[in-house]
Amino acid sequence: MPNIKPVSDLRNYNEVLKDIAVGEPVFLTKNGRGRYAIVDIEEYEKTRATLKLMGELAKGELSGNENGWLNIADIEKELGI
């Protein structure tokens, strides 16, 4: 179940920070609507790395679609295998 708190709970931020764990962010609301998410730094870094990887994979797919794909035999030949 998501951990949802009003942003006013940040007045006692130590209590809010205690509830944060990897895979368990704290969502803060402002005027009854979701506004912020506080995540563990490990989860944040993992998410950033995943987004970067997905971006690089998308570039590779675009390049393959535009310039053509190599089959395994061509790759082995290029690598001298």
In short:
The protein is an alpha+beta fold and 81 residues long.
Task: Describe the protein in words.
With 81 residues, this protein is α+β, with helices and mostly antiparallel strands. The chain folds into two domains: 3-39; 42-79, no CATH class. It is 51% helix and 19% strand. The protein has three helices and three strands; from the N terminus they run βαββαα. It has helices at residues 13-18, 41-67, 72-79, and strands spanning 3-6, 26-30, 33-38. The longest helix has 27 residues, at 41-67. The chain is elongated, with a radius of gyration of 22 Å.
What attributes characterize this protein structure?
19% strand; 2 domains; 81 residues; alpha+beta; 3 helices; single chain; three-stranded mixed sheet
SSE layout and pairings?
Blueprint: E1 3-6, H1 13-18, E2 26-30, E3 33-38, H2 41-67, H3 72-79
Parallel strand pairs: 1-2
Antiparallel strand pairs: 2-3
Within the largest sheet, what's the order of strands? Answer: 1-2-3
Provide the domain count. Answer: 2
Q: In whole angstroms, how far apart are the ends?
A: 51 Å
Per DSSP E runs of 2 or more residues, the count of β-strands stands at: 3
